[in-house]
Specification:
The complex is a heterotrimer of chains A (about 325), B (about 500) and C (about 625). With about 325 residues, chain A is mostly helical. Chain A is about 70% helix and about 0% strand. In chain A, helix 2 packs antiparallel against helix 3, helix 4 (about 65-80) runs parallel beside helix 6 (about 105-120) and helix 9 (about 170-185) packs antiparallel against helix 10 (about 195-210). The longest helix of chain A is centred in the N-terminal third of the chain and has 18 residues, at about 1-20. Chain B starts with 18 loop residues before the first helix and ends in a 5-residue tail after the last helix. Chain C has about 625 residues and is of the alpha/beta class. Chain C is built from 25 helices and 13 strands. Chain C has a 5-stranded mixed beta sheet, sandwiched between helices. Chain C has a 4-stranded mixed beta sheet with strand order 10-11-7-12. The longest helix of chain C is centred in the N-terminal third of the chain and has 26 residues, at about 5-30. Classes of the chains: A mainly alpha (about 325), B mainly alpha (about 500), C alpha/beta (about 625). Chains A and C meet through helix 2, helix 4, helix 6, helix 8 and helix 10 of A and helix 5, helix 7, helix 23, helix 24 and helix 25 of C.
């Protein structure tokens, strides 16, 4: 069976090489050079060029070598991500990825391959493409188990969790998805991508399970770690403001509004945060709520230096409005 | 042309050459000549194929895709067309383009008269001068031309309003703004209690007129009329069957309906010969006229054919045909008058009261402004094309006409117009293509949404904004395909009916 | 001797040839290697900023750069190519694909052909470069009188942090990377007042207040303090009277409307038909009542209608909220927004929808409008045009943010601020062509041109504003600086603009809105037409569900693709910066994967009913 698969794989590579622009057989040196060019093409999203460059490469490299694994992965990826999508290319990419799993031993490339395969089976890549959710999940599970690199394992956890949460009509699946990610976070509390995981949980709790309190807790965890996309911190903070209002948690509401004013000068919600704090000041006079001054780039106007020494012209205009 | 070995001088063969080798030489010589000629035209053909035909074929293909380059290209078969046909804006854009098309038919005439006037100039020097004068505007970039026209329409400072105010025409328009709605109101009972229930609207009356005129040309009274009647009536029922049932909603249903329509059209063509071509147009027009009440289409068709049957059955074709045609023309004229006085200016626009009507800023004035655009409608290219036709008319013809006592005015109708019909046809085709596909002027004058109430949305502009504002390239291709079919069929009609009778 | 036209033509042709040879020769000479034998490196910059002064300002910066010793030594020469906007995209498309594009080009956000991942194919990502300090902001390049805190900040912060917008103007959200460096900014939308007309209108008002009884138009504008049901706009208070005695522009929306009404009176008194209060046109920035204010009425719904928590209200969210009953065409907010728009259009010129941006500016500049609304991008040409007028035609201009209702004025309970400009993006984003043979010099030039000293002076020369933190704008640009105070601008169901829905609905709502404003249909007809379009069984809300989901689902593969690219960069090309981008990307990818949220929202509203398939 194994040899049959190898035979098919070899035939496939040969046929691909035959179709490629470089119909001549490449020397190993040439193949390596072309591999580098192909990878550079992928790095700038030019999968069409990468496909042309990479088609003859794997056949010119010793099967199983690290270069061969890189070339096969890159070629399979070029086939899968060729735009517009072609069904036959995606099917060819599956065969190449599977061949790579059979022949390759580089744990990282294997992990990348398993994630790609998991994804291909998880979603419908082209009209008429059949989905095999369980098979896809098995690939993700394999990556989580083998943990070839923390980044890849994290991705697999999120992919697996998400594939469960997406089944929103089945609450037990959703809960299993969230539990899986929570369990992983407990197991690896120091991961670099944990903020992404907490935010994934927050979104699932908020939008799929409709549990704003649980969502807020998860957002708090993400906030403590530094949000998934730091440049969108203002948006996340405002979502937390909304959730805090929903849950009626005024203590948290105060904190998030203050953070909006203090930490996110580019937030378009600064004024609303200030108004909210003014309202809360009236509601809770005993809390001694501080309304921080809003930081903006204008603070540096007139070579003025710090925010405290900022000119009042701009702020005066703001107040006037 | 054929040639015999005897008559063809030999280039290669000496006295010893046999008849066989002589033939061989001739053929190779000819072939090589042809080869050279073909090679010479090859670059043109290739570039035509690559740059003109291939993109068009691609449009046909892509009209069946959900296409959002570069990532999305999904085959959806007729989905884009189904959406287009259920899109009210698409239909209203065709209504507008129909109005503009009719207006353009009138706007052709000044060009023809200008060309005739130029042609009649006796001084060559002056004719040359005027011809140059006609060419000069061509060097003004189209964009500048458009912007100048846009400024003409400016309410406060535009030339048009200044002219109307200075000549007192503004007062006339102000008067009409109250008179015309009053006339429309008085016609209202006629429309509500008679025309609408009986003919399905003013359009129905005009449509019936066209059917009668078309039938009046039907000379045969032989045995083939019954099957032909059957095919026409069956075709007329197809829109109702297709669109009033769930047939159009599903792919197999749509395909079946399309198959039946094609089969019936083939049957009709088989029965009527090349005269069949006008019927599909009439039925398409009828579908548009009776949209929403499609059951009326077969009824009106049956009435028209019945009228033909009765009138034609009672007298000879020579007598019955003009009768039928007069009834038809009468119905068209009455219908058009009803449209003119009962459907267009039905409410006061209140735009003329202060002498500053907003021609491009009011939904009621946009269409008049678009029709007025380009006044006095003497297109440079058109005039030059007509002139080329006129210059081919021999002086003998004029002299003969003069001897026969034809007046200079009569010569326009009896000599010049009939002899430049080829040029008129060319211009008509250009005008049709331009009217249906243009979008630049509307885009610049009215913006991408076609002005207030989308009143100035033409199919070309809708196609453009679908592609470049909405990013729906497949849908835009489908709109383009519909336009293509309309233009092609109109061109066929011109070829069929506008003929130079020399 | 008779002049032969053929000879003349030959002569012209010969001259052209000679000129070409001369030009080529000059190029050849200037591209010779320098003393060190290095071949000339020319960096070409393409842009379409042909507004008066911009090219001169940029050229000043270029000349400064070309004179730098290390630039001269390396035989680098920067030059600019100003290309008209109408042909700019075609020019760049052709040259990018042919590989002959200029080294640096200003990006156009309306680029249909080169968008999404194609940007990565043609332009250089800058994330690596912008995280390092800008060497031209080192202390020796900064003014001596600069506050030490600012000097430290500019010298030590990463390059991106030195931009007033955090370099957001060069950020590509889809690729999660920076692909451009913005070099100038022009701020937000403002009201430009003709102060001569403001003063004349105030005279009219003073006279009207003195009349007994007061004229009807004035009475109609006023309301009793605290009368919530009044259709008047502002109360007659001592504050109002005091303001009338000053030379100030309107301080509130009510005062602005009152002044507009006075201009109508002024036009009638003088028999000047061309004079209008507001120089409106079809250009959206010229129609403040329609777009600036109307959306503010609907702001309060934002938190209730934003289903996918992206803080933007799109078409589906607007329509879902409509069906959920959050808003209707009869909501007071919608009605009041249309009332305000109706009030504003009274002050626009007749047929304003048929006028364009240039016509509106011309009217203002010729003194036939009290106010024109537009952005800083038009400021320079307006100021210059007015300055060029004859002495009696000239007038003073004052530029302010759109006024909002004061506490005791009509609509104060709907909005008290306009839109916040905190999220603004700086402009003229310059990209580096991937095919450029000298990317390192391109980066060096962009660093130079966005350094504090150079950027400040360059923009003062161009009449625009600097992008560098702490830099002073030219005095005329001060009013345009972005103001953070205000409501989040994209947070509302934008009924006026067709609620961002699919074209089949949007065209009806937006088109009918215009008809309401020109008085051609009444509000109820508008509401009926809009509801018919929304409820259309084929092209109504159902279609919106499908299209919104489809759009999201279509992003699945490109998102996966970008994750694959980052994996290749990180694991196969050993790119250290890839991991961060991969993390950002990962969150995008799993968030709303295949648009499943929308299916969930549909399920919540239509339990058990299949999701629309077209």
């Amino acid at each position: 069976m194994e040899s049959l698969r190898n035979l098919i794989g070899a035939a496939l590579l040969a046929s691909l090489a035959g179709c490629g622009s470089a119909t001549m057989e490449l020397s190993e040196e040439q193949a390596k050079k072309q591999l580098d060019q192909g990878l550079e093409a992928i790095a700038i999203f030019d999968y069409g060029k990468a496909l042309t460059l990479l088609q003859p490469v794997p056949a010119a490299l010793p099967v199983g070598s690290r270069e061969w694994q890189k070339a096969t992965f890159a070629l399979a990826s070029s086939l899968r991500y060729y735009q517009p999508v072609r069904g036959e290319y995606v099917l060819q990419s599956v065969e190449l990825y599977e061949l790579l799993l059979a022949e390759g031993d580089d744990p990282v490339i294997r992990g990348m391959t398993q994630i790609e395969l998991g994804r291909i089976f998880e979603i419908s890549d082209f009209p008429g493409d059949e989905v095999d959710l369980e098979k896809g999940r098995d690939y993700y599970r394999a990556v989580i188990e083998e943990r070839p690199a923390p980044g890849l394992a994290n991705e697999a956890v999120l992919r697996l969790g998400n594939s469960l949460v997406k089944e929103f009509t089945r609450p037990e699946e959703v809960e299993a998805g969230i539990a899986l990610v929570r369990g992983y976070l407990e197991e690896y509390p120091d991961n670099a991508q944990n903020a992404v995981m907490w935010q994934f949980i927050a979104m699932a709790e908020d939008m799929v399970r409709n549990d704003p309190a649980a969502a807020l807790d998860a957002y708090d965890e993400a906030k403590a770690l530094g949000f998934a996309v730091p440049s969108k911190a203002d948006n996340y903070l405002w979502i937390m403001v909304r959730l805090a209002k929903q849950t009626g948690d005024d203590r948290r509401l105060v904190r998030y509004c203050q953070a909006t004013l203090r930490d996110t000068p580019r937030s378009a919600h600064g004024t609303l945060a200030r108004l909210e704090l003014e309202r809360l000041q009236k509601k809770h006079p005993d809390w001694d709520i501080e309304i921080p001054r809003r930081a903006t780039f204008l603070d540096f106007m007139n070579r003025g230096g710090s925010a405290d020494a900022a000119p009042t012209e701009a702020s005066g205009q703001e107040e006037g409005a | 042309m054929t040639s015999t070995p005897e008559s063809t001088p030999s280039l290669s063969g000496g006295p010893s050459s046999s008849p066989m080798s002589h033939w061989y030489d001739t053929i190779t010589r000819r072939l090589s000549l042809w080869m050279v000629l073909y090679l010479l035209v090859l670059p043109t053909i290739i570039s035509l194929g690559v740059f003109s035909y291939y993109p068009k074929f691609d449009v046909v293909r892509m009209s069946m895709f959900r296409w959002n380059p570069p990532a999305v290209q999904e085959f959806t078969f007729l989905q884009n067309f189904v959406i287009a046909f259920s899109d009210p804006l698409f239909w209203s854009s065709f209504q507008l383009v129909f109005i503009l098309f009719v207006a353009n038919l009138f706007k052709l005439w000044p060009g023809i008269f200008a060309a005739i006037a130029l042609h009649r100039l006796t001084s060559n020097r002056w004719r040359y001068f005027y011809q140059v004068m006609f060419v000069v505007p061509m060097i003004i970039p189209a964009m500048v031309w458009l912007l100048i026209w846009k400024s003409f329409y400016e309410p406060d400072t535009g030339l048009l309003n200044s002219f109307l105010n200075a000549t007192g025409l503004m007062s006339l328009l102000r008067g009409m703004d109250s008179v015309m709605p009053a006339i429309a109101q008085s016609l209202d009972p006629v429309l509500v209690y008679f025309v609408n229930p009986v003919f399905g609207g003013m359009g129905g009356l005009v449509f019936l007129g066209f059917l009668l005129v078309a039938a009046s040309f039907w000379r045969d009274h032989g045995s083939n009329r019954l099957p032909a009647f059957g095919f026409i009536t069956a075709l007329a029922t197809m829109p109702a069957i297709t669109f009033m049932t769930p047939l159009a909603g599903s792919f197999p249903g749509g395909l079946t309906a399309a198959g039946i329509v094609v089969a019936l059209a083939v049957g009709l063509a088989w029965q009527l010969g090349d005269r069949w071509i006008s019927w599909p147009f009439l039925l398409i027009a009828g579908t548009a006229v009776f949209w929403g009440e499609l059951w009326r289409l077969p009824v009106v068709v049956a009435i028209a054919l019945g009228a033909y049957w009765i009138i034609h059955g009672r007298s000879e074709w020579v007598l019955s045909s003009p009768r039928l045609r007069n009834v038809g023309l009468g119905s068209i004229v009455v219908g058009c008058l009803l449209v003119a006085f009962g459907a267009i200016w039905t409410e006061p626009t209140n735009q003329f009261n202060y002498g500053t009507p907003a021609w491009l800023g009011s939904k009621d004035l946009i269409i008049p402004a678009l029709i007025l655009w380009g006044f006095p409608w003497v297109g440079t290219v058109g005039v030059l094309i007509y002139l080329s036709g006129l210059q081919n008319i021999s002086n003998d013809v004029y002299e003969a006409a003069e001897l026969d006592g034809v007046s200079p005015l009569g010569m326009i109708w009896h000599i010049e117009l009939p002899l430049i019909l080829t040029q008129v046809r060319i211009n008509l085709i250009f005008m049709t293509i331009n009217t249906l596909t243009a979008y630049e002027i509307y885009y610049i004058l009215l913006g991408p949404s076609g002005g207030p109430g989308n009143r100035g949305m033409v199919p070309g502009l809708y196609m453009f904004s679908s592609a470049f504002s909405e990013g729906k390239f497949g849908y835009a291709c489908a709109l383009g395909m519909v336009l293509f079919v309309v233009i092609l069929t109109l061109t066929i009609v011109y070829q069929r009916y506008i003929k130079v009778d020399k | 001797m008779k002049l032969s036209t053929n000879l003349l033509a030959l002569g012209v042709l010969a001259l052209m040839y000679l000129a070409s040879i001369w030009h080529f020769g000059a190029l050849f000479v200037t591209h010779q290697p320098n003393e060190e034998g290095e071949a000339r490196k020319t960096i070409r910059i393409a842009h379409w900023q042909l507004e008066p002064g911009y090219r001169e300002g940029l050229q000043w910066a270029i000349d400064k750069y070309n004179e730098l010793p290390h630039v001269k030594k390396a035989n680098v020469f920067v030059e600019q190519q100003g290309i008209p906007q109408r042909v700019y995209l075609q020019f760049l498309n052709v040259h990018l694909i042919a590989g002959t594009a200029p080294d640096i080009a200003v990006r156009d956000n309306n680029w249909q052909l080169i968008k999404g991942s194609a940007i990565a194919r043609f332009f250089t990502p800058l994330s690596g470069e912008i995280s390092l300090p800008n060497k031209y902001n080192a202390r020796e390049f900064l003014p001596e009188d600069m506050a030490p805190e600012l000097a430290d900040f500019l010298a030590d912060s990463p390059w991106m942090e030195t931009f007033i917008d955090g370099m957001k103007g060069g950020y590509d959200g889809e690729l999660n990377d920076f692909y451009a460096v913005p070099v100038s900014t022009w701020g937000g939308q403002r009201f430009f007042f003709n102060m001569t007309l403001v003063s004349e209108a105030k005279d009219v008002l003073r006279r009207a207040f003195a009349e007994e009884p007061r004229p009807e138009w004035l009475t109609a504008m006023l309301r009793e303090p605290g009368d919530e049901d009044s259709k008047g706009f502002l109360p007659d208070t001592p504050g109002l009277r005091a303001w009338l005695e000053t030379g100030e522009v309107p301080q509130s929306l009510g005062q602005f409307l009152l002044l507009c009404e006075a201009v109508l009176e002024l036009a009638e008194e003088n028999g000047n038909d061309a004079l209008v209060p507001v120089s409106g046109s079809s250009y959206s920035a010229n129609t403040p009542g329609l777009y600036t204010y109307a959306a503010l009425f609907l702001n309060d719904w934002a938190d209730r209608v934003d289903l996918d928590r992206n803080l933007r209200v799109d078409g589906l969210e607007s329509l879902a909220a409509f069906h959920d009953g959050v808003w209707t065409m009869d909501s007071t907010e919608v009605r009041e927004a249309y009332e305000l728009m109706g009030q504003f259009t009274r002050y626009y010129p007749p047929g304003f929808l048929g006028l364009d941006r240039e016509q509106a500016q011309r009217r203002f500049v010729t003194g036939n409008a009290m106010m024109v609304s537009t952005g800083g991008w038009d400021a320079s040409s307006i100021f210059r045009s007015v300055a060029k007028r004859s002495e009696e035609g000239r007038f003073e201009i004052e530029v302010v943010r759109p006024p909002v209702p004061a506490e005791d004025e009509r609509w104060a309970n709907y909005f008290r601020f306009t839109g916040s400009e905190a999220e603004f993006n700086a402009g003229v984003p310059m990209t580096i062509n991937k095919a450029s043979p000298h990317p390192e010099w391109c980066i060096d030039f962009l660093r130079f041109v966005t350094s504090f000293t150079i950027n400040e002076e360059m923009n003062q020369r161009t009449g625009w504003a600097s992008v560098v933190v702490g830099a002073d704008p030219s005095p005329e640009m001060v009013p345009f600086l972005p103001q953070a105070e205000g409501y989040p601008p994209a947070d509302s169901v934008n009924v006026v603009r067709g609620a961002n829905t699919i074209p089949q609905i949007r065209n009806v709502i937006e088109g009918s809105t215009k008809l309401v404003l020109t008085g051609e249909i009444d509000f109820d007809t508008f509401a009926e037409r809009s509801e018919t379009a929304i409820n259309d069984p084929v092209l109504g809300t159902r279609r919106q569900w499908y299209e919104t989901w489809r759009k999201r689902a279509d992003r699945t593969l490109p998102l996966d693709q970008s994750l694959n690219v980052e994996a290749v960069r990180q694991y196969l090309l050993d790119d250290k910066t890839a991991e961060t981008r991969r993390t950002f990307r990962l969150f995008d990818v799993i968030n709303n994967d295949e648009g499943y949220y929308f299916r969930k929202f549909w399920e919540d509203r239509h339990p058990g009913e299949p999701f629309p398939d077209r």
